[in-house]
Amino acid sequence: MSAIDVVIPVYQSESTAPFLVERLNNWANQTSLKPHFIFVNDGSSDKTIQILKKHLGKTKLSFSIISLAKNYGQHTATAVGFHYCKNNLIATIDDDLQHDPYVIDTMHEFMMMQDNDLVYGKYTQKKHHAFRNLGTIILQQLLKLEGKDYSMVTSCRLMKSSVISVFRNNQRRIFFVDDYLLLGAVSVNSCLVEHNERANGNSGYTFAKLTKMAFTILMLHSTLPLKLISRMGLYMSIAFFLLGCLYIYKKLAYDVEIGFTSLIVAIFFSTGLILFSLGIIGEYIRRIWVSKQQLDQIIISETCRH
Fold first, then answer.
1. Can you give the pLDDT at residue 38?
2. What is the DSSP letter of 299?
3. Contact between 9 and 77 (Cβ < 8 Å)
4. Per the structure, how many domains does the chain have?
5. pLDDT at residue 281, rounded to an integer
């Protein structure tokens, strides 16, 4: 029997906690896996923890509860949960039962057949609001511009312990955990799973929170803005240089007034030089950022000793 850690971030979940514990208990009694549940309370201000403890106390489930001092966000809560994982298999699901724990068995069978390090549960049909689905698509397309494909990424995951090695000693806030998971995984895949309606209540992700999260991912887990600045600086400097050469040619060929030519050439050449310099600076900042975020580290997937 394979032991597995199941990380579940919880936030304002007092209405869904009883249903969650009941479903987890049913699955734990039927699965061939041996689960240990790690609940990470992401600064809930309601009675989430009290209700969780009350209903978990009525079961024989193996569990841990970690409470954060304030609301840091789902990705940070997930990363904190990884820090406490001890088993060779780790799964993550949401607390609202949109991910039925039974899908972990499906992903486990798929992982064993395909020999993957990281498997995402790809939804047969998303049950999120239309604006949230649209926002996800737009964000994924923007990230594709810098060669990152997150089309299979969901919060329903199954992975080997080697994938989360980057989180072992991490105590920093994480805004996009999948950036690090994809870095640590050698083989990534996805399998189809059901995506259910929320068991109760409304999602904590408002339009404002989703917009802020998307902006944060673009700024802190993407070099796209820096790339745009550096590329724009390079292309504009070339364009201004060519325009300057054009006006010099016009002066020599058609005897354009000297004042206009000298003025426009000076503006174009100086502006082009400034933009080119900004492009170089932007590229250095991008490389420093990648190094600071540890996205350029070497990942060792396996070692062998005799």
1. 93
2. P
3. yes
4. 2
5. 73
Residue 110 neighbours by CB distance under 10 Å = 18
Confidence tier at 127 by pLDDT (50, 70, 90): low
Domain identity same for 173 and 231: no
> Do 133 and 260 fall into the same domain?
no
103: number of CA atoms within 13 Å, CB side? 25
Of the three residues 220, 251, 266, the one that is the final residue of a domain is 220
Average pLDDT, the chain: 77
CATH number for position 150:
3.90.550.10
23-27 long-range contacts (CB < 8 A, ≥24 apart) are 23/97, 23/100, 23/101, 24/61, 24/101, 25/59, 25/61, 27/100, 27/101, 27/102, 27/104
82 in the same domain as 153? yes
In whole angstroms, give the CA distance from residue 214 to residue 138.
10
Alpha-carbon distance 43 to 238, whole Å?
Answer: 51
Has residue 51 been placed in a domain? yes
Indicate whether 210 and 236 sit together in one domain.
Answer: no
Q: Is residue 297 part of a domain?
A: no
How far is Cα 306 from Cα 300, in angstroms, rounded to an integer?
18
Judgement on whether residues 81 and 196 belong to the same structural domain of the protein: yes
Between CA 132 and CA 140, with CA 135 as vertex, the angle to 5 degrees is: 125
For 126-142, what is the mean pLDDT?
A: 57
Residues 8, 156, single domain; the answer is yes
Written as six digits, the tokens of 238 are 């070339």
Instruction: Determine contact, residues 155/103, Cβ cutoff 8 Å.
Output: no
Query: Where does the chain show beta strands of DSSP type E?
Result: 3-10, 34-41, 62-67, 89-92, 118-123, 157-160, 188-193
| Report field, pTM of the whole predicted structure over 0.85 | no
Place of tokens 């240089």: 241
Last residue of a domain, one of 185, 220, 255: 220
> Residue 13 is part of which domain span?
3-220
